[in-house]
Design brief:
The protein is an all-alpha fold. The N terminus is likely disordered. Helix content is 76%, strand content 0%. The protein is built from 9 helices and no strands. The radius of gyration is 31 Å and the shape is elongated.
Length: 270
Protein backbone atom coordinates (compact mmCIF):
# COMPACT_ATOMS: atom_id res chain seq x y z
CA UNK A 1 0.00 0.00 0.00
CA UNK A 2 1.32 3.45 -0.79
CA UNK A 3 0.38 6.92 -1.85
CA UNK A 4 1.63 9.40 -4.43
CA UNK A 5 2.30 13.05 -3.63
CA UNK A 6 3.00 14.06 -7.25
CA UNK A 7 1.56 12.64 -10.47
CA UNK A 8 4.75 12.71 -12.53
CA UNK A 9 3.08 11.56 -15.73
CA UNK A 10 0.54 14.37 -15.43
CA UNK A 11 3.34 16.86 -14.78
CA UNK A 12 5.12 15.65 -17.94
CA UNK A 13 1.98 16.14 -20.02
CA UNK A 14 1.44 19.55 -18.40
CA UNK A 15 4.95 20.60 -19.43
CA UNK A 16 4.44 19.24 -22.94
CA UNK A 17 1.16 21.12 -23.33
CA UNK A 18 2.70 24.28 -21.96
CA UNK A 19 5.59 24.28 -24.46
CA UNK A 20 3.22 23.92 -27.40
CA UNK A 21 2.15 27.56 -27.19
CA UNK A 22 5.59 29.23 -27.57
CA UNK A 23 6.65 26.59 -30.09
CA UNK A 24 3.69 27.21 -32.39
CA UNK A 25 3.90 30.98 -31.94
CA UNK A 26 7.55 30.82 -32.95
CA UNK A 27 6.51 28.97 -36.09
CA UNK A 28 4.30 31.91 -37.04
CA UNK A 29 7.08 34.41 -36.31
CA UNK A 30 9.51 32.45 -38.47
CA UNK A 31 6.93 32.15 -41.24
CA UNK A 32 6.53 35.95 -41.26
CA UNK A 33 10.30 36.41 -41.20
CA UNK A 34 11.01 34.22 -44.23
CA UNK A 35 7.92 35.10 -46.27
CA UNK A 36 9.39 35.91 -49.70
CA UNK A 37 9.28 39.32 -51.35
CA UNK A 38 9.23 38.72 -55.07
CA UNK A 39 9.12 42.43 -55.83
CA UNK A 40 5.31 42.61 -55.64
CA UNK A 41 4.46 42.29 -51.94
CA UNK A 42 0.92 41.30 -50.96
CA UNK A 43 -1.61 43.99 -50.19
CA UNK A 44 -2.87 44.53 -46.65
CA UNK A 45 -6.07 42.46 -47.21
CA UNK A 46 -4.00 39.71 -48.84
CA UNK A 47 -1.60 39.71 -45.87
CA UNK A 48 -4.56 39.39 -43.51
CA UNK A 49 -5.93 36.38 -45.44
CA UNK A 50 -2.52 34.73 -45.47
CA UNK A 51 -2.12 35.24 -41.72
CA UNK A 52 -5.61 33.83 -41.02
CA UNK A 53 -4.78 30.73 -43.06
CA UNK A 54 -1.49 30.19 -41.23
CA UNK A 55 -3.07 30.77 -37.80
CA UNK A 56 -5.81 28.22 -38.52
CA UNK A 57 -3.14 25.75 -39.63
CA UNK A 58 -1.22 26.18 -36.36
CA UNK A 59 -4.39 25.88 -34.25
CA UNK A 60 -5.21 22.62 -36.05
CA UNK A 61 -1.69 21.37 -35.28
CA UNK A 62 -2.26 22.21 -31.61
CA UNK A 63 -5.60 20.37 -31.57
CA UNK A 64 -4.00 17.24 -33.01
CA UNK A 65 -1.12 17.18 -30.54
CA UNK A 66 -3.12 18.21 -27.47
CA UNK A 67 -5.75 15.58 -28.19
CA UNK A 68 -3.35 12.85 -27.06
CA UNK A 69 -2.70 14.38 -23.62
CA UNK A 70 -5.48 12.76 -21.63
CA UNK A 71 -4.18 13.57 -18.14
CA UNK A 72 -4.37 17.33 -18.73
CA UNK A 73 -7.39 17.51 -21.00
CA UNK A 74 -9.02 19.99 -18.61
CA UNK A 75 -6.12 22.40 -19.27
CA UNK A 76 -6.37 22.20 -23.06
CA UNK A 77 -9.14 24.81 -23.61
CA UNK A 78 -7.25 27.51 -21.68
CA UNK A 79 -4.00 26.71 -23.50
CA UNK A 80 -5.76 26.84 -26.84
CA UNK A 81 -7.30 30.18 -25.93
CA UNK A 82 -3.85 31.48 -24.97
CA UNK A 83 -2.36 30.19 -28.23
CA UNK A 84 -5.12 31.80 -30.29
CA UNK A 85 -4.58 35.09 -28.44
CA UNK A 86 -0.83 35.03 -29.00
CA UNK A 87 -1.17 34.11 -32.66
CA UNK A 88 -3.79 36.76 -33.34
CA UNK A 89 -1.66 39.39 -31.59
CA UNK A 90 0.78 38.92 -34.50
CA UNK A 91 -1.80 39.82 -37.12
CA UNK A 92 -0.65 42.73 -39.25
CA UNK A 93 3.02 41.83 -38.99
CA UNK A 94 3.22 40.35 -42.45
CA UNK A 95 2.07 43.67 -43.89
CA UNK A 96 4.47 45.55 -41.58
CA UNK A 97 7.26 43.43 -43.00
CA UNK A 98 6.83 45.17 -46.34
CA UNK A 99 6.40 48.67 -44.94
CA UNK A 100 9.19 51.11 -44.13
CA UNK A 101 7.29 54.27 -43.23
CA UNK A 102 8.09 55.92 -39.89
CA UNK A 103 4.47 55.81 -38.70
CA UNK A 104 4.20 52.10 -39.52
CA UNK A 105 7.46 51.31 -37.74
CA UNK A 106 6.39 53.26 -34.63
CA UNK A 107 3.05 51.48 -34.58
CA UNK A 108 4.82 48.16 -34.97
CA UNK A 109 7.22 49.04 -32.14
CA UNK A 110 4.28 49.63 -29.78
CA UNK A 111 2.63 46.39 -30.84
CA UNK A 112 5.89 44.49 -30.54
CA UNK A 113 6.51 45.66 -26.98
CA UNK A 114 2.89 44.89 -26.05
CA UNK A 115 3.47 41.30 -27.16
CA UNK A 116 6.70 41.18 -25.13
CA UNK A 117 4.82 42.38 -22.04
CA UNK A 118 2.17 39.71 -22.58
CA UNK A 119 4.90 37.08 -22.87
CA UNK A 120 6.33 38.22 -19.52
CA UNK A 121 2.91 38.32 -17.86
CA UNK A 122 2.09 34.82 -19.07
CA UNK A 123 5.33 33.48 -17.58
CA UNK A 124 4.63 35.28 -14.31
CA UNK A 125 1.23 33.61 -14.19
CA UNK A 126 2.82 30.21 -14.86
CA UNK A 127 5.37 30.71 -12.09
CA UNK A 128 2.70 31.76 -9.61
CA UNK A 129 1.05 28.39 -10.18
CA UNK A 130 4.16 26.25 -9.61
CA UNK A 131 6.18 27.88 -6.83
CA UNK A 132 7.83 26.73 -4.72
CA UNK A 133 10.22 25.17 -7.20
CA UNK A 134 13.94 25.11 -7.87
CA UNK A 135 15.59 28.51 -8.26
CA UNK A 136 17.07 27.25 -11.52
CA UNK A 137 13.57 26.76 -12.90
CA UNK A 138 12.69 30.38 -12.16
CA UNK A 139 15.90 31.70 -13.69
CA UNK A 140 15.34 29.47 -16.74
CA UNK A 141 11.77 30.77 -17.13
CA UNK A 142 12.87 34.40 -17.26
CA UNK A 143 15.75 33.54 -19.57
CA UNK A 144 13.17 31.99 -21.88
CA UNK A 145 11.10 35.18 -21.77
CA UNK A 146 14.09 37.19 -22.98
CA UNK A 147 15.01 34.55 -25.55
CA UNK A 148 11.48 34.27 -26.97
CA UNK A 149 11.09 38.05 -27.14
CA UNK A 150 14.46 38.51 -28.81
CA UNK A 151 13.64 35.80 -31.35
CA UNK A 152 10.21 37.36 -31.89
CA UNK A 153 11.67 40.85 -32.47
CA UNK A 154 14.37 39.45 -34.74
CA UNK A 155 11.83 37.52 -36.78
CA UNK A 156 9.17 40.22 -37.13
CA UNK A 157 10.72 43.69 -36.79
CA UNK A 158 12.86 45.21 -39.55
CA UNK A 159 16.53 44.92 -38.48
CA UNK A 160 15.48 43.17 -35.28
CA UNK A 161 16.39 44.59 -31.87
CA UNK A 162 18.59 47.28 -33.42
CA UNK A 163 15.74 48.47 -35.61
CA UNK A 164 13.28 48.40 -32.73
CA UNK A 165 15.63 50.45 -30.57
CA UNK A 166 15.40 53.29 -33.07
CA UNK A 167 11.61 53.54 -32.74
CA UNK A 168 10.75 52.52 -29.14
CA UNK A 169 11.73 55.70 -27.29
CA UNK A 170 8.27 57.31 -27.50
CA UNK A 171 5.61 54.67 -26.96
CA UNK A 172 2.09 54.88 -25.47
CA UNK A 173 1.89 55.09 -21.67
CA UNK A 174 2.47 51.76 -19.96
CA UNK A 175 4.50 50.28 -22.80
CA UNK A 176 8.24 50.18 -22.04
CA UNK A 177 11.12 50.43 -24.46
CA UNK A 178 12.95 47.18 -25.12
CA UNK A 179 15.80 48.22 -22.80
CA UNK A 180 13.35 49.06 -19.99
CA UNK A 181 11.58 45.78 -20.65
CA UNK A 182 14.80 43.83 -20.04
CA UNK A 183 15.22 45.70 -16.74
CA UNK A 184 11.64 44.81 -15.80
CA UNK A 185 12.29 41.13 -16.54
CA UNK A 186 15.32 41.16 -14.24
CA UNK A 187 13.33 42.83 -11.44
CA UNK A 188 10.58 40.23 -11.79
CA UNK A 189 13.13 37.43 -11.63
CA UNK A 190 14.65 38.78 -8.40
CA UNK A 191 11.19 39.23 -6.89
CA UNK A 192 10.21 35.65 -7.75
CA UNK A 193 13.43 34.19 -6.38
CA UNK A 194 12.67 35.82 -3.03
CA UNK A 195 9.01 34.76 -3.13
CA UNK A 196 10.12 31.24 -3.96
CA UNK A 197 12.43 31.16 -0.98
CA UNK A 198 9.66 32.42 1.32
CA UNK A 199 7.19 29.81 0.05
CA UNK A 200 9.32 26.70 0.67
CA UNK A 201 8.62 26.20 4.40
CA UNK A 202 4.83 26.72 4.09
CA UNK A 203 4.83 24.17 1.27
CA UNK A 204 6.76 21.68 3.40
CA UNK A 205 4.32 22.22 6.26
CA UNK A 206 1.44 21.58 3.86
CA UNK A 207 3.00 18.33 2.61
CA UNK A 208 3.50 17.19 6.21
CA UNK A 209 -0.10 17.97 7.10
CA UNK A 210 -1.45 16.15 4.04
CA UNK A 211 0.86 13.18 4.67
CA UNK A 212 -0.30 12.95 8.27
CA UNK A 213 -3.92 13.02 7.17
CA UNK A 214 -3.22 10.30 4.61
CA UNK A 215 -1.42 8.10 7.15
CA UNK A 216 -4.21 8.64 9.66
CA UNK A 217 -6.83 7.58 7.14
CA UNK A 218 -4.93 4.46 6.10
CA UNK A 219 -4.23 3.35 9.67
CA UNK A 220 -7.73 4.09 10.91
CA UNK A 221 -9.23 2.17 8.00
CA UNK A 222 -6.99 -0.81 8.79
CA UNK A 223 -8.10 -0.76 12.44
CA UNK A 224 -11.76 -0.54 11.45
CA UNK A 225 -11.39 -3.43 9.01
CA UNK A 226 -9.55 -5.58 11.58
CA UNK A 227 -12.22 -4.83 14.17
CA UNK A 228 -14.99 -5.79 11.78
CA UNK A 229 -13.25 -9.08 10.96
CA UNK A 230 -12.75 -9.86 14.64
CA UNK A 231 -16.37 -9.12 15.47
CA UNK A 232 -17.47 -11.35 12.61
CA UNK A 233 -15.22 -14.18 13.86
CA UNK A 234 -16.49 -13.85 17.43
CA UNK A 235 -20.14 -13.77 16.41
CA UNK A 236 -20.29 -17.52 15.83
CA UNK A 237 -17.52 -18.78 18.14
CA UNK A 238 -18.46 -21.34 20.79
CA UNK A 239 -16.72 -23.05 23.71
CA UNK A 240 -17.62 -26.65 24.55
CA UNK A 241 -17.67 -25.99 28.29
CA UNK A 242 -20.14 -23.04 28.14
CA UNK A 243 -23.84 -23.08 27.61
CA UNK A 244 -25.52 -20.94 24.99
CA UNK A 245 -26.45 -18.12 27.38
CA UNK A 246 -23.00 -18.07 28.99
CA UNK A 247 -21.35 -18.09 25.57
CA UNK A 248 -23.53 -15.23 24.41
CA UNK A 249 -22.56 -13.20 27.48
CA UNK A 250 -18.84 -13.95 26.92
CA UNK A 251 -19.13 -13.17 23.23
CA UNK A 252 -20.71 -9.80 23.97
CA UNK A 253 -17.95 -9.01 26.46
CA UNK A 254 -15.18 -9.95 23.99
CA UNK A 255 -16.75 -7.93 21.19
CA UNK A 256 -17.16 -4.90 23.45
CA UNK A 257 -13.54 -5.27 24.56
CA UNK A 258 -12.33 -5.48 20.97
CA UNK A 259 -14.30 -2.40 19.94
CA UNK A 260 -13.10 -0.46 22.98
CA UNK A 261 -9.48 -1.32 22.25
CA UNK A 262 -9.88 -0.48 18.57
CA UNK A 263 -11.49 2.84 19.49
CA UNK A 264 -8.53 3.67 21.73
CA UNK A 265 -6.15 3.06 18.83
CA UNK A 266 -7.94 5.23 16.30
CA UNK A 267 -6.04 8.43 15.57
CA UNK A 268 -8.64 11.16 15.88
CA UNK A 269 -8.20 14.47 14.11
CA UNK A 270 -6.92 17.23 16.33
Amino acid sequence: MGFILIDFKKRKEHDELRTMVPTLVKKLDNWINVYPNDGTPPTEPECSDLEDEKINELLAEFDEKAGSLGRVKDEVPDRRHLLAHNLNSRKGYLFYKFSDTVDALQDQAAKTMTVCLETLNQSVKELNSIIPTKDDAITWEFEQVVKRCEEYVTATYPEGVTGLDAYDDVLPEGIPSYADFLTLVKEKEESFLQANKDSVQPAIDDVKAKSKATFRGIINKAIENATAEMVADLSDDTLPYLGEAEMEELRAELIAGAKEYAESRLDKEE
